[in-house]
Amino acid sequence: MANPLKGEIPLTLGKETYKCRLTIDALVRIEDELDKGILELATAIAEAKVRIRTLIVVLKHALRGGGNDFDDKKIGSIIQDVGIVVASTEVAKLLASTLTDHDSDEEVDKKKAEAWILNQYNGLTSIRFVLVWWICDLTIFGTYPLVKCI
Q1: Which of 100, 116, 124, 142 is 20 to 30 Å apart from 106, CA to CA?
Q2: CB–CB of 65/20 below 8 Å?
Q3: What three-state secondary structure class fits 12?
């Protein structure tokens, strides 16, 4: 069971749910390994310009942070089993959850807005809207909820 107080996030890939955690160290390793900033990666996923290698690297560090010992080959196998769209969506949610301020009073509104968007759109569209919400929220509106971004 994931513990959100420790920054752990449950990640469902296929029939399995894994405990994930993206620490600062993990984010630095992801940036170094892919030679891109974390915001640049989030933007690329939002624009559906994600490479499978990117998914593998992010998942590898997130899963290891959650106490799992997976290598690139195992993660590639998981991605193949669940499909690229599902894996991309889960990575997008993982990044959005990790990079969102969880101490904000408006977090409940953000979660409701995120849930509404995810229920309205499927596949890659979900990725785009979740990350666009997060980028708008972070860069333009501070901690205002999604409704004010749209």
Answers
A1: 124
A2: yes
A3: strand
List beta partners, residue 17: 12
Tens digits of per-residue pLDDT, 45-82? 878 888 999 999 999 999 998 888 889 999 999 999 99
Separation of first and last alpha carbons in the chain: 34
Global pTM reads 0.64
Can you read off the two tokens belonging to residue 137?
């929220």
**DSSP secondary structure letter of residue 5:** G
Helices and strands (DSSP H and E) totals, the chain: 8, 2
* 8 A C-beta contact, residue 113 and residue 146: yes
Per-residue tokens: 76 = 């590639």
Distance separating alpha carbons of residues 13 and 78, to the nearest angstrom? 7
What's the one-letter identity of residue 55?
Answer: L
- Output the six-digit token pair for 103: 């101490």
> Can you spell out the DSSP letters for 69-122?
---HHHHHHHHHHH-HHHHHHHHHHHHHHHHS-TT-TTHHHHHHHHHHHHHH--
Dist CA 85 CA 124 (whole Å): 6
